[in-house]
Write a structure and sequence with these properties.
With about 230 residues, the chain is α/β, with parallel strands linked by helices. The protein has a four-stranded parallel beta sheet, with helices on both faces. A three-stranded parallel beta sheet has the order 1-2-3. Strand 4, helix 5 and strand 5 form a beta-alpha-beta unit. Helix 4 packs parallel to helix 5. The radius of gyration is 19 Å and the shape is elongated. It starts with a helix and ends in a 5-residue tail after the last helix.
Protein backbone atom coordinates (compact mmCIF):
# COMPACT_ATOMS: atom_id res chain seq x y z
CA UNK A 1 0.00 0.00 0.00
CA UNK A 2 1.43 3.37 -1.02
CA UNK A 3 -0.42 5.27 1.74
CA UNK A 4 1.32 3.38 4.59
CA UNK A 5 3.96 5.53 6.30
CA UNK A 6 6.35 2.69 7.14
CA UNK A 7 6.13 1.17 3.66
CA UNK A 8 6.69 4.63 2.18
CA UNK A 9 9.93 4.83 4.16
CA UNK A 10 11.04 1.45 2.80
CA UNK A 11 10.08 2.47 -0.72
CA UNK A 12 12.02 5.74 -0.51
CA UNK A 13 15.14 3.91 0.71
CA UNK A 14 14.80 1.40 -2.12
CA UNK A 15 14.55 4.24 -4.63
CA UNK A 16 17.61 5.99 -3.18
CA UNK A 17 19.68 2.79 -3.20
CA UNK A 18 18.65 1.98 -6.77
CA UNK A 19 19.61 5.48 -7.92
CA UNK A 20 23.00 5.24 -6.21
CA UNK A 21 23.65 2.01 -8.13
CA UNK A 22 22.24 3.36 -11.40
CA UNK A 23 19.45 0.80 -11.48
CA UNK A 24 16.01 1.37 -12.91
CA UNK A 25 13.32 0.49 -10.36
CA UNK A 26 9.57 0.12 -10.98
CA UNK A 27 7.12 0.51 -8.10
CA UNK A 28 3.57 -0.75 -8.31
CA UNK A 29 0.79 -0.58 -5.70
CA UNK A 30 -1.19 -3.80 -5.18
CA UNK A 31 -3.61 -1.88 -2.90
CA UNK A 32 -3.82 -4.87 -0.55
CA UNK A 33 -5.55 -6.83 -3.34
CA UNK A 34 -4.11 -10.32 -4.00
CA UNK A 35 -5.51 -10.56 -7.53
CA UNK A 36 -4.08 -7.18 -8.50
CA UNK A 37 -0.79 -8.27 -6.94
CA UNK A 38 -0.65 -11.33 -9.22
CA UNK A 39 -1.32 -9.20 -12.29
CA UNK A 40 1.44 -6.73 -11.39
CA UNK A 41 3.94 -9.54 -10.84
CA UNK A 42 3.01 -11.09 -14.19
CA UNK A 43 3.66 -7.67 -15.76
CA UNK A 44 7.13 -7.55 -14.17
CA UNK A 45 7.86 -10.99 -15.66
CA UNK A 46 6.66 -9.93 -19.11
CA UNK A 47 8.91 -6.85 -18.90
CA UNK A 48 11.83 -9.20 -18.13
CA UNK A 49 12.69 -7.55 -14.84
CA UNK A 50 15.87 -9.25 -13.55
CA UNK A 51 14.80 -9.02 -9.88
CA UNK A 52 11.37 -8.87 -8.23
CA UNK A 53 10.83 -7.54 -4.69
CA UNK A 54 7.47 -8.24 -3.06
CA UNK A 55 5.85 -6.94 0.11
CA UNK A 56 3.18 -9.67 0.00
CA UNK A 57 -0.52 -8.95 0.55
CA UNK A 58 -1.01 -12.36 2.15
CA UNK A 59 1.81 -14.36 3.74
CA UNK A 60 0.02 -17.74 3.92
CA UNK A 61 1.77 -20.73 2.34
CA UNK A 62 -0.74 -21.21 -0.49
CA UNK A 63 -0.81 -17.50 -1.37
CA UNK A 64 2.99 -17.25 -1.50
CA UNK A 65 3.21 -20.28 -3.81
CA UNK A 66 0.55 -18.73 -6.06
CA UNK A 67 2.87 -15.75 -6.51
CA UNK A 68 6.00 -17.84 -7.03
CA UNK A 69 4.25 -19.95 -9.67
CA UNK A 70 3.97 -16.81 -11.83
CA UNK A 71 7.72 -16.18 -11.72
CA UNK A 72 10.34 -18.28 -13.57
CA UNK A 73 12.85 -19.82 -11.15
CA UNK A 74 15.67 -18.03 -12.98
CA UNK A 75 14.43 -14.68 -11.63
CA UNK A 76 15.49 -14.02 -8.02
CA UNK A 77 12.67 -12.96 -5.69
CA UNK A 78 12.98 -11.03 -2.43
CA UNK A 79 10.05 -10.93 -0.02
CA UNK A 80 10.32 -7.71 1.94
CA UNK A 81 8.98 -6.79 5.40
CA UNK A 82 6.25 -9.47 5.62
CA UNK A 83 7.73 -12.92 6.16
CA UNK A 84 6.21 -15.77 4.08
CA UNK A 85 4.74 -18.59 6.17
CA UNK A 86 6.43 -21.28 4.13
CA UNK A 87 9.85 -22.71 3.29
CA UNK A 88 11.21 -20.62 0.45
CA UNK A 89 12.61 -22.36 -2.65
CA UNK A 90 16.10 -21.66 -4.05
CA UNK A 91 16.70 -18.18 -5.46
CA UNK A 92 14.00 -16.77 -3.13
CA UNK A 93 14.78 -14.71 -0.03
CA UNK A 94 13.22 -12.82 2.88
CA UNK A 95 14.49 -9.47 4.19
CA UNK A 96 12.80 -8.19 7.33
CA UNK A 97 12.58 -8.36 11.08
CA UNK A 98 11.81 -11.23 13.44
CA UNK A 99 8.15 -10.47 14.22
CA UNK A 100 7.92 -12.78 17.22
CA UNK A 101 10.99 -11.14 18.75
CA UNK A 102 9.50 -7.66 18.25
CA UNK A 103 6.30 -8.71 20.02
CA UNK A 104 8.38 -10.11 22.89
CA UNK A 105 10.37 -6.88 23.17
CA UNK A 106 7.16 -4.87 23.17
CA UNK A 107 5.45 -6.68 26.05
CA UNK A 108 8.70 -6.90 28.04
CA UNK A 109 9.26 -3.15 27.68
CA UNK A 110 5.68 -2.45 28.76
CA UNK A 111 5.97 -4.57 31.90
CA UNK A 112 9.31 -2.99 32.84
CA UNK A 113 7.60 0.42 32.91
CA UNK A 114 4.27 -0.52 34.50
CA UNK A 115 2.59 -1.66 37.65
CA UNK A 116 2.38 -5.46 38.16
CA UNK A 117 -1.30 -5.79 37.22
CA UNK A 118 -2.47 -4.38 33.90
CA UNK A 119 -5.59 -4.52 31.75
CA UNK A 120 -4.27 -4.48 28.19
CA UNK A 121 -5.88 -3.79 24.83
CA UNK A 122 -4.24 -5.03 21.62
CA UNK A 123 -4.56 -3.45 18.18
CA UNK A 124 -3.77 -6.09 15.55
CA UNK A 125 -2.94 -5.64 11.87
CA UNK A 126 -4.57 -7.35 8.89
CA UNK A 127 -6.45 -10.59 9.45
CA UNK A 128 -4.40 -12.22 6.67
CA UNK A 129 -1.03 -11.05 8.00
CA UNK A 130 1.47 -13.42 9.58
CA UNK A 131 3.19 -10.31 10.94
CA UNK A 132 0.13 -9.49 13.03
CA UNK A 133 -0.29 -13.07 14.20
CA UNK A 134 3.35 -13.48 15.28
CA UNK A 135 3.59 -10.12 17.05
CA UNK A 136 0.32 -10.72 18.87
CA UNK A 137 1.25 -14.32 19.77
CA UNK A 138 4.54 -13.18 21.30
CA UNK A 139 2.79 -10.56 23.43
CA UNK A 140 0.25 -13.15 24.59
CA UNK A 141 2.90 -15.78 25.31
CA UNK A 142 5.22 -13.53 27.31
CA UNK A 143 2.37 -11.88 29.20
CA UNK A 144 1.85 -15.25 30.91
CA UNK A 145 5.03 -14.57 32.86
CA UNK A 146 3.37 -11.61 34.57
CA UNK A 147 0.68 -12.83 36.96
CA UNK A 148 -2.25 -10.46 37.37
CA UNK A 149 -1.98 -8.77 33.96
CA UNK A 150 -4.41 -9.73 31.24
CA UNK A 151 -5.59 -8.86 27.73
CA UNK A 152 -9.16 -7.57 27.97
CA UNK A 153 -9.76 -6.70 24.30
CA UNK A 154 -8.05 -7.43 20.96
CA UNK A 155 -9.25 -5.83 17.72
CA UNK A 156 -8.04 -5.82 14.13
CA UNK A 157 -7.30 -2.35 12.78
CA UNK A 158 -5.53 -3.18 9.51
CA UNK A 159 -2.22 -1.53 10.44
CA UNK A 160 -4.14 1.74 9.85
CA UNK A 161 -4.01 4.90 11.95
CA UNK A 162 -7.60 5.77 11.03
CA UNK A 163 -8.98 2.31 11.77
CA UNK A 164 -7.13 2.18 15.09
CA UNK A 165 -8.57 5.54 16.10
CA UNK A 166 -12.06 4.21 15.31
CA UNK A 167 -11.48 1.02 17.32
CA UNK A 168 -10.17 2.80 20.41
CA UNK A 169 -12.94 5.41 20.19
CA UNK A 170 -15.38 2.50 20.26
CA UNK A 171 -13.64 1.01 23.29
CA UNK A 172 -14.04 4.35 25.04
CA UNK A 173 -17.77 4.59 24.23
CA UNK A 174 -18.18 1.09 25.67
CA UNK A 175 -16.47 2.24 28.89
CA UNK A 176 -13.78 -0.41 28.47
CA UNK A 177 -11.06 0.21 31.03
CA UNK A 178 -7.47 -0.43 29.86
CA UNK A 179 -4.16 0.59 31.40
CA UNK A 180 -2.14 -0.03 28.24
CA UNK A 181 -2.58 -0.43 24.49
CA UNK A 182 -0.06 -2.41 22.47
CA UNK A 183 -0.18 -2.18 18.69
CA UNK A 184 1.30 -4.37 15.95
CA UNK A 185 2.72 -1.21 14.34
CA UNK A 186 3.30 2.49 14.98
CA UNK A 187 0.45 3.74 12.80
CA UNK A 188 -2.13 2.00 14.98
CA UNK A 189 -0.42 3.25 18.14
CA UNK A 190 -0.70 6.80 16.82
CA UNK A 191 -4.36 6.22 15.98
CA UNK A 192 -4.97 5.08 19.55
CA UNK A 193 -3.24 8.23 20.80
CA UNK A 194 -5.51 10.42 18.66
CA UNK A 195 -8.61 8.66 20.00
CA UNK A 196 -7.55 9.29 23.60
CA UNK A 197 -6.86 12.95 22.93
CA UNK A 198 -10.23 13.47 21.22
CA UNK A 199 -11.95 11.85 24.20
CA UNK A 200 -10.14 14.16 26.59
CA UNK A 201 -8.09 11.35 28.13
CA UNK A 202 -4.53 12.28 29.08
CA UNK A 203 -2.11 10.15 27.00
CA UNK A 204 0.12 9.68 30.05
CA UNK A 205 -2.70 7.83 31.83
CA UNK A 206 -2.64 4.91 29.35
CA UNK A 207 0.63 3.46 28.11
CA UNK A 208 0.70 3.07 24.32
CA UNK A 209 3.33 1.06 22.44
CA UNK A 210 3.94 0.51 18.74
CA UNK A 211 6.52 -1.26 16.59
CA UNK A 212 8.56 0.21 13.70
CA UNK A 213 10.23 3.46 14.70
CA UNK A 214 8.56 5.75 12.16
CA UNK A 215 9.35 9.46 12.36
CA UNK A 216 5.89 10.33 13.70
CA UNK A 217 6.16 7.66 16.40
CA UNK A 218 9.65 8.75 17.43
CA UNK A 219 8.36 12.32 17.80
CA UNK A 220 5.51 11.03 19.99
CA UNK A 221 7.99 9.11 22.13
CA UNK A 222 10.12 12.24 22.55
CA UNK A 223 7.03 14.16 23.71
CA UNK A 224 6.21 11.33 26.18
CA UNK A 225 2.92 10.46 24.49
CA UNK A 226 3.99 6.97 23.35
CA UNK A 227 5.96 4.56 25.51
Amino acid sequence: QFNDNYLSTLRNHLADEAQSRRLQILFRNAQNNPELEKGLIASFVSQQCPLIVINPVNTADAMIHDLLNIIPRTIPVIFLNREPETILPPNTYYVGSDDYESGKLQITHLMEHSKPELHIGILMGDTNSGVARRRTAAATDFLKSFAGSQIVIASHAGFSRTMAEQQVSYWITQHLSVDAIISNNDEMALGALTALKKAGIAPASIKILGIDGTLDALDAIQSHELL
